[in-house]
Amino acid sequence: MSAPVFATGPGGLAGLAPGDTLVLDGPEGRHAVSVRRLRPGEEVVVTDGAGAGVAGTVAAVSGKDRLEVAVDRVHREPAPHPRITVVQALPKGDRGELAVETMTETGVDAVVPWTAARCVTRWKGERGAKALAKWRATAREAGKQSRRLRFPDIAEPAGTKEVAGLLAGAAFAAVLHEAGGAPLAGAPLPPDGDLVLVVGPEGGVAPDELAAFAEAGAAPYRLGPTVLRTSTAGTAAAAVLLARCGRWS
Questions:
Q1: How far is CA 185 from CA 54, 177, 182, 238, in A?
Q2: Domain extents for the chain?
Q3: Which of 1, 75, 186, 236 gets the highest tally of CB atoms within 10 A of its CB?
C-alpha cells in the first residue's frame, strides 16, 4: 500500500531538506498516532496542500498526538496546466460534500459554490459558513486520500453575476446542460488557459442564467445520452477534460 498522507498548514514544509526532522502534532498527529497507530520505521508523506510534499520515515512517537518524521525526500509539484475549475450549484443535503469529494479525487483544481436561482439550498449566515467549512474540510480529506500534493481551492459562494465574470476570463467555458447541442467530449479546447465548467442545480439552469453565461462566452454542452445528478455531473465532466487536455496522459 502507498504511504499514508498527512497535511500541514500553508508553509508548514518551508525550508525542509533531506535529513531534517518534521514534527507532526495536533489533529494530524493525533490521527497518525491514535487512529492509524503509526510506529517508528513506517513510511509517511506530508503535504502542505499547495504543491509541496515530503516523504519520510517515522523516527519517534510520543504521547497520543505527536510523531517525528525523518525527511528522506522533498518534492515540489508545479501548478497544473491547464487549471480546471468547476462552478457547482448548491445541492440539497450532503450531496455538496459528495460532489467536492469526488471532484477532488478526480483532479479538479478549484470549486466555486454557486447560489443559482433554482437552488433549493441557501447558504446564509452561520449555516452558510458551516457549509462552506464542510466543503473545505471534505476537499482536504479527499486530497489526502487521493495522494494529492495540491488540494483544490474552495472559493467563497458566488452569485450568477460573479460566475459570469469568471467565465468571461476563461480560455474555455462550458455549461453542462441536457439540451446542449454538442457533446463535451468533442468541444474544441484551447492550447492554453483555464477551463471552467458550470454545473446547475437539481431544477436546472434558469433561462436568464443561460443567457448571461452565453454572453460571457460559455456555451451549453451535454455529457452523453443520460442525465446525471448535480452531485456527479462535475466529476464526470472533469474526467472528460482531464483526459482530453493531456493531464491524464
A1: 36, 14, 9, 11
A2: 5-76, 84-245
A3: 236
Alpha-carbon dihedral of residues 215, 247, 143, 70, nearest 10 degrees? Answer: -140
What value does the mean pLDDT take over residues 59-67? 93
The tens digit of pLDDT for each residue in 174-192 reads 999 987 889 999 999 999 9
Backbone phi, psi, residue 8, to 5°: -110, 180
CATH label, 5-76, candidates 3.40.50.300, 3.30.450.40, 1.10.760.10, 2.40.240.20: 2.40.240.20
203 Cα distance to chain centroid: 24
With contact defined as beta carbons under 8 Å apart, do 165 and 214 qualify?
A: no
Q: Is the pLDDT of residue 99 over 90?
A: yes
Confidence of residue 29 (pLDDT cuts 50, 70, 90): very high
* CB atoms closer than 10 angstroms to residue 228: 16
Q: What's at 217, amino acid-wise?
A: G
pLDDT at 1 over 80: no
